[in-house]
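Fold it.
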Amino acid sequence: MVLSVSCVACLCLVVVVTADPCLIISEINADNPRLDTTEFVELYHTSGQRASLDGYTLVFYNGNGNIAYKVLDLKGHSTDDRGFFLVGSVDMLPKPAILLPPNTVQNGPDAIAIYHTLAARYSEKMNVTAVGLVDAVVYMSRRSGGAEFLAETLTPGEPAFVEDDTAHDGDESIERCLLSEDRWGFQVSLPSPGQRNNCTPPATPTTVPLITELRLGGGQVDGFVEVTEAPGVGPLVLVVVDGKTDRVSSSSYLWEWSFIEVPVMTTDLKSVIGDASGAVAIYSGTVTDFPVGGPLSQVQPLDAFVFAGPGSKPSAGLTETLIPGRQPFQLSNRHFLTPGFYLSRCGVATWARDPGVFWEAPQTPGQPNQCPWPRICPHSSGKYISLLYDFLINEVNTDTPGAAEDGEYIELWHPSGRRVSLQGIWILLFSAHNNKPYREISLSGHFTTAKGYFLLGSDRLVPAPSLRLPPNTIQNGPDAVALYRSPFGPPSATQRGIPTKGLLDAVVYRQRGSDMEAQELSKALTPGQLPLLEDPEVLPGDEALSRCRGLYPFDLSAFSVAPPTPLRENSCPRPPPAPEGVVISEVASGLWTNHSQQRAFVELHGPAMTSLQGLVLSVFPVFIQHSLSTFVLTHSHHLPLTSSVSCIDQTFPEGSTVPARGAVILCYDLFSVCRAGTALTNSSLRDVLVFSEKQQLLSSLSTSRGRQVIPALR
């Protein structure tokens, strides 16, 4: 469905799909039907051009023992003219640059990693290491499991990718695709060696209409909106909201015909640069529900696109209602004189209401979107990405002391850490005895607290839950709690067996001696992982399963048995003592001189042979919210007696460096408390060096440790 529409604030948009180029693992085919004669690993340089691979090493790890079974020095090789480089079986086409015997690439649990440092540091049968790591993929099958240690070392915080060999008839491969903004993920798709991956947006849904293309133009140039059809949904309305006033500027029906004109409302483009923002949203209802000039509706839209003008941002109410927990699309005045600007849904994320899935692309109304291959690196956010911008299960208490069990609860949390609508969110409580939900709970109409928490539990629980349950409702296990986004009814209504469509997070748990009974729930909801044990013998009195080690969904290793803390920060087990005496000793940026040999580096100093486990080194540009790089210095690293640029212990990720103006921060972090974008506290901050005059950066960091310096550019 394509609609012509003129926007209230018709500015041009710029989506950031370019950055300093890097080398990534783009595709892996580790398991062919019958004999493994067409295995391959595809590397890609995000410049899209020929690039030298000198200094790079490709290492293959066996998850059984966590040691290297194959090491390839890539010195002397280059990517092709489009940025691709193939390592693969002798029988495959196109012919790989490096040939491997059949059945070389193991099926999992295994890992493949790229390093950039001296090739002599890597050899077959070495232990898994993160020293010099540039990129890595950890994978396993539903049957194998056992990749936890590889994932912890190579992709900390991100569980291994589970390859489903039933996804396609014949052969398939693991392909990397951009989800949204700078968040990457993996999917199983048809092999495409030496070609762009099959990263297509989700197929047209049958129940939820999605905005797939936008054209925003200036002056008298009409824009348009392309929407996927959704038969049977009922009347739909397209609403344009003025970001200055949060009021409706136009609304129009989306009927069954393919094209409809919307009343034209023109705006002088130049007059709104600097303070324009707004939104386009699809609602279920009638135009009388959204009168022109009326206030922003509190009804949750089916899909929405929110944009912010240069130097401005939409109101908190606009983003909270339309795109909870996500950022608006940032406008730019770079193309404000052009007659139109085209955006296409290109990110493969399956969720709606996310402006980050839109990129600048050619207009293709009624046709598949022509999405460019993104040139942003997976490492720009400091870690590998999962669905960090949706609700998570934060704490579960299924078994309280006494026969009444009137203190049970489930606590949810939204990573935005603010008030967010729970419209369309469902909790399903599963019994392992029949693998069916024994209770389905809709959370529509509810909101999280101002800190992002939501509590449902027994009616006598203190603090009082937002949604009350009768005592002894949550079963003790073996069972599961699963969280879904399902805007048109309970997930079980349209899916057979254990529903997985729309699944946001899940916790499978058990009592002693019941681990075998939860196999089917574990296989569907948390594949490759063992059920959690809420052990009543760990703590005196009551206890809960609390999220303590990361914010990734379906990751049971993130949970620990801990004291109950409903609607409060989780009380996690005490970590080991932080390394003492380690400080930032020296910092250099390649941008502080015009000499070609100037190198960027950060040197740490401390007692000899001090373990660096738990220390995180972050290098920030002018704003603390977006780090250039985050290094987790794990237990396998020890600080040498001396350090110099010629003897590097760990390299910057490809495309990252020390900026001309910014900060270097050393903090202690075992539980993701001082990652990029989170608040730093005196308890986690170990040392800081600020070399910037930006007051926003200076005020964001404690000055009780470290000192501000302003280096000369030359």
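The first strand starts at residue 2 and ends at 5.
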